[in-house]
Specification:
With 360 residues, this protein is mainly beta. It has a single domain, classed as Porin. The protein has five helices and 16 strands. It has a 16-stranded antiparallel β-barrel. The longest helix is centred in the first third of the chain and has 20 residues. The two termini are 38 Å apart.
Amino acid sequence: MPDLLAAAVVILAFFFVVKSLRNKKKGRCSKCYCMIAILLLSGGLKAQEVQKPFILEHRLHKHKVDFVNSTVYQQIKKYSTVYNTLHMFLTVDFTETDEIFINGSVSFGNGLKKKLEKEGYSISTTADDLEEYLRNINGTGRKYLLELFYQKKIEKLIIIGGLIDAASFIDANRYANDEHTQFLNDMFVNNPIASIPSYNFGAHVKYSLSNQINISGVYIQNKPDSGNTGIIEIDIEEGDLSIRSYYFYVFGREEFKGFGISGDYAFDENTGVFFRAGSSNTDSEYFVSGGLEKKEIFTEDKIGVGIGYIKGRNGSESITACECYYTVAVDKHLFLSGDIQYIKEKMEDIVFGGRVFFSY
């Protein structure tokens, strides 16, 4: 397909997806636009074009269906809890450039969520999708189905449409982006003061300007809040350094906008550092975080250390979080982690934890 025609198809399909999201009549019209978008794209890259590390692992397996299971123990003061999260992935290939990806999850337990809220904390000590959330995802009534999207690659263009997680394409980081294999705390998984919605209908487009520079766009529903979120990101990769800067804007509600940046640098295959920063016009003025990861210290193991800070505005409390985890591989499928967190908002506490992660 000629480049111009391919570009026209992608732009038209992206337009239909965006129009379906902005359509106020959430009935037949919206569904029809989504179907038209899929049909436009279904002419003859793999899914998970940019995804969290525990999903990226799925690409390395020969089987079509994969699953991961994470069991986490956490304790604050004299209160302790255990939760379990299971993800299953399914990939359906049509051609070398066409693919559907499905991500479903079931969780048991809600961790420290209610305890932390009762204590007055607004930051979570886990970024996992817990039981209460998965029974009514984003207030839509949908259960357990997180992602279901179609991906098409045309030359330097990649387009994805369906149920997506914006955090899979925006604000990525090699060392701080995965609550299953890296940090648990929300502050070290994604930018906590940005609008980067997950598991809603939306579209993602990526264009490679060169081997080092990519530009991405996401337009996605903002449920359970009102409006839709648009995000533009520029990714620059030069050697061992990666920088991803983005701007987000929430349409259809009181103005909510801001900037963010996520970067990482690998000193070698076993040692790397990360940083994140962001600003917004909400009750949080700015956010910064940073840390490091070191592998093969004694055996097949790794350690991660991170520190983050959110500056409050208009009387809102500032928040500080620190986390350190140590993970050892029992074999290629089973990993054990010890975890300790320090959190400070209206008060301060230490959170002790452990994690058993199984991937197949």
